[in-house]
Amino acid sequence: METKPAPGVLAQVADLIGRTPVGQRGALWRLGADRRQLDANVIRLPAGTEVQPHVEADLDVLLYVVDGGGHLSVDGGGHQTTLAPGALVWLPRGTCRALYAGAAGLTYLTVHARRPGLTVSAPAPAPAPATAEGDAACLLHRVCPECGRLSGESDALYCSRCASALPPR
After folding, report:
1. Cβ atoms < 10 Å from Cβ of 38
2. Closest CA to 151 of 137, 132, 165, 136
3. For residues 60 and 92, is the Cβ–Cβ distance under 8 A?
4. Distance CA 85, CA 128 (A)
5. How far is Cα 142 from Cα 167, in angstroms, rounded to an integer?
6. How many H-runs (helices) and E-runs (strands) does the chain carry?
7. Over its length of 169 residues, how does the chain's per-residue pLDDT go in tens digits?
8. Do 62 and 110 contact (CB within 8 A), yes or no?
């Protein structure tokens, strides 16, 4: 019989913020429990930084502002929302959004359904030789160096899970 994970306090967000250098960007905390149905991250953007416009095509995301402030731009800047501590924002899948940190930086929690994990399988067949159409596609520029997530968007500049910059093309 499978054992159910025990509920409990996972982190004290004020402590995470307090012991992290002000200029540090990225995930301060990630939900790491096994057999979970959710993914959650506490992300910090230092003052004046941003998460470039991107689309999460498959998942709705809930964003909760913990500390600092800034603004959220959706649909290519057609709609802007001021973000302050306590703001709770729903980002339906398919929404193009960008985040901009204000003078105090921006720390926020994101929660969304968990993506299926990567599985180990038989080695892939050797790539086909180059043809007149070009070489086989390389997806390394879409793999987040911080959390390992493969971006679903070919033009994404930042990871939608942890907000880290993706490698250049």
Report:
1. 11
2. 165
3. yes
4. 52
5. 7
6. 1, 7
7. 667 777 888 888 999 889 988 888 999 999 887 778 889 999 999 999 999 999 988 899 999 999 999 999 998 777 889 999 999 999 999 999 999 999 999 999 999 998 765 556 566 565 555 555 555 557 777 787 776 777 777 767 777 777 777 777 7
8. yes
